[in-house]
């Protein structure tokens, strides 16, 4: 029995034991020996086989589909944190994962980046630059202010300024494409994702080539070099932070190495 399957079974058992039968339409009789819901009741609510559900709790080696997990999450009335944990333990993608909007007000995002002395900016779900400070504007130039909706990917692959500014542009561009593929794994059905992808593939032969490689890399920090038009060569260290409540938002800081 794997630790992952054992943890999945234990989580489901603990969750159902916290459920009050009456709240789910089941009588709380004196003969009820099980704390919370019975396994058979959970199976009934989720419209799955009682035997199959028992095997899940027992940590047996069986395949659990995303649809079945979705029914279990709904049956047990899991909140978004419990639901995310359930799918993570099962190693499945949640087909109905709640999509967080960019709920933080633009003014609040701007106040966050303005508090930093070093270049700082915030990326949205598809790497739109939602807020940036004076340090970022000085480093990257006027493309941030010139674009109605500045996007880091459009800048790197479609703006000639990026090739002159970014040290080792080809190496960085390859990694950025791989990082974006990894970062977009939960948005493959989003029309906005496909619209941006089409624009990049049609506008940049390099992006189209890199995207076909299916390289997948997690975004990470490290040294970044820039050939600034007035300051000359600039070496900085990049750090990226995700917001706890809205993981699709990334705060990027560029500090001295």
Write the layout of secondary structure elements.
Layout: H1 3-17, H2 39-46, H3 50-57, H4 66-75, H5 80-90, H6 106-114, E1 120-123, E2 129-132, H7 134-140, H8 143-146, H9 152-158, H10 160-165, H11 169-183, H12 191-203, H13 205-212, E3 222-228, E4 232-242, E5 250-255
Antiparallel strand pairs: 1-2, 1-5, 3-4, 4-5
What does this structure look like?
The two termini are 46 Å apart. The protein has helices at 3-17, 39-46, 50-57, 66-75, 80-90, 106-114, 134-140, 143-146, 152-158, 160-165, 169-183, 191-203, 205-212; strands at 120-123, 129-132, 222-228, 232-242, 250-255. It has a 5-stranded antiparallel beta sheet. With 257 residues, the protein is α+β, with helices and mostly antiparallel strands. The protein is built from 13 helices and 5 strands. A hairpin with a 5-residue loop joins β1 and β2 (129-132). Pfam families: HTH_31, MLTR_LBD. InterPro entries: Cro/C1-type_HTH, Lambda_DNA-bd_dom_sf, MLTR_LBD. This is HTH cro/C1-type domain-containing protein. GO terms for molecular function: DNA binding.
Instruction: State the helical fraction.
Output: 40-55%
Query: Number of folding domains?
Result: 2
Structural class: alpha+beta
By CATH reckoning, the class of the largest domain would read Alpha Beta
- Average pLDDT: 89
Profile the largest sheet.
5 strands, antiparallel
Per DSSP, what share of the residues sits in E-state strands of 2 or more residues?
Answer: 5-15%
Identify the strand order in the major beta sheet.
Answer: 2-1-5-4-3
Shape-level CATH architecture of the largest domain: 2-Layer Sandwich
């Amino acid at each position: 029995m794997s630790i992952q399957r054992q943890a999945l079974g234990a989580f489901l058992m603990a969750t159902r034991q916290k459920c009050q039968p009456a709240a789910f339409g089941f009588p709380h009789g004196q003969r009820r020996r099980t704390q919370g819901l019975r396994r058979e009741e959970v199976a009934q609510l989720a419209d799955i086989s009682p035997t199959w559900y028992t095997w899940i709790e027992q940590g047996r080696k069986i395949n659990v589909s995303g649809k079945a997990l979705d029914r279990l999450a709904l049956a047990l009335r899991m909140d978004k944190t419990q639901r995310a944990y359930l799918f993570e333990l099962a190693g499945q993608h949640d087909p109905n994962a709640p999509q967080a909007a960019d709920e933080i007000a633009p003014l609040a995002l701007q106040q966050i980046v303005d508090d930093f002395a070093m270049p700082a900016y915030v990326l949205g779900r598809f790497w739109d630059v939602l807020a940036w400070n004076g340090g970022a504007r000085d480093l990257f130039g006027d493309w941030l202010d010139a674009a109605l909706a500045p996007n880091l990917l459009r800048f790197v692959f479609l703006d000639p300024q990026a090739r002159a500014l970014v040290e080792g542009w080809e190496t960085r561009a390859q990694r950025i494409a791989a990082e974006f593929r990894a970062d977009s794994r939960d948005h493959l059905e989003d029309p906005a994702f496909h619209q941006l992808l089409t624009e990049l593939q049609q506008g940049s032969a390099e992006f189209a080539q890199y995207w076909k490689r299916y390289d997948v890399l997690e975004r990470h920090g490290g040294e970044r070099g820039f050939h600034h038009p007035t300051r000359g060569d600039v070496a900085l260290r990049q750090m990226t932070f995700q917001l706890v409540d809205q993981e699709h938002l990334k705060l990027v800081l560029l500090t001295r190495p």
